[in-house]
Amino acid sequence: LGAQAVCQDAVVTQQLLQEGFHRELLLQVELGATREDLGRCTVAARTRLPPGIYVDPYELASLQRHNFTKALVIPDAVDVEAPEYLASDLVVLLYMTPDPRCSGCFTATLPVHGRYHRPAENNGTALVALKSPEILICCCDNHLSTECWKPSDVEAACLGRSSHPCQWYSVKHKPVSEELIMQIPVGLRQHRFLVCVTTLLATVLCSSMILAAACRYGH
């Protein structure tokens, strides 16, 4: 494989599907090489999720059991209840699969969720920027030229090739867009009093109903 062609022609696109808090991140990579040239190489995308977005490890484990998605999350312990201002970045290594509609193309989807943000003054939307991912390739059983690939510090196995870590290389690529913006609904500060009063009344009403039922049918 002419590695120079791969480095120059690789194109990355990413988009968010659905609306609201629960979305799907769709990644597509065109390496500019045929599937025969790539042989049994594994392609992956390393993307960094900012504090405003997270992945649910339990949902991801379920998808991996059914072979819908293969990914590694760093760190693997994710607090799904933490708000945006108490969360930290996540790094996801997302294994990609060949796209049958395009030779040399790979695709992957990742379910992502928006975290709760602090209430805003007058804008009911928070903007979270997703930068273009890093594209990685490993060819444990192929003798490919890597003269224009940079060795990566990723320690992960080539999916389905070996259970031992393999040498990954970072592929130069040109993203169609440097950043992808996710819009997350947030509350407004002027609604704080109304929300607190409504929540308190609902709590008192429900607690009273439970207490009344317990006293009436407690025996």
From TrEMBL:
**One Gene Ontology cellular component:** endoplasmic reticulum membrane
Q: Where in the cell is it found?
A: Endoplasmic reticulum membrane
Record InterPro entries: PIG-X/PBN1, PIGX
What does the record give as its pathway? Glycolipid biosynthesis; glycosylphosphatidylinositol-anchor biosynthesis
Q: Which GO terms describe its biological process?
A: GPI anchor biosynthetic process
Q: Does the keyword S-adenosyl-L-methionine apply?
A: no
Question: What UniProt keywords are attached to this protein's entry?
Answer: Endoplasmic reticulum, Glycoprotein, GPI-anchor biosynthesis, Membrane, Transmembrane, Transmembrane helix
- Key word Chloroplast present in the record? no
Name the source's superkingdom.
Answer: Eukaryota
Note the topology in the membrane.
Answer: Single-pass membrane protein
* Pfam families referenced in this protein's UniProt entry, alphabetically: PIG-X (PF08320)
Its biological function? Stabilizing subunit of the glycosylphosphatidylinositol-mannosyltransferase I complex which catalyzes the transfer of the first mannose, via an alpha-1,4 bond from a dolichol-phosphate-mannose (Dol-P-Man) to the glucosaminyl acyl phosphatidylinositol (GlcN-(acyl)PI) intermediate to generate alpha-D-Man-(1->4)-alpha-D-GlcN-(1->6)-(1-radyl,2-acyl-sn-glycero-3-phospho)-2-acyl-inositol and participates in the sixth step of the glycosylphosphatidylinositol-anchor biosynthesis. Probably acts by stabilizing the mannosyltransferase PIGM.
PANTHER family the record matches? PHOSPHATIDYLINOSITOL-GLYCAN BIOSYNTHESIS CLASS X PROTEIN (PTHR28650)
Family that this chain belongs to? Belongs to the PIGX family.
This protein is called: Phosphatidylinositol-glycan biosynthesis class X protein
Which species is listed as the source?
Tinamus guttatus (White-throated tinamou)
Q: What is the lineage of its organism?
A: Eukaryota, Metazoa, Chordata, Craniata, Vertebrata
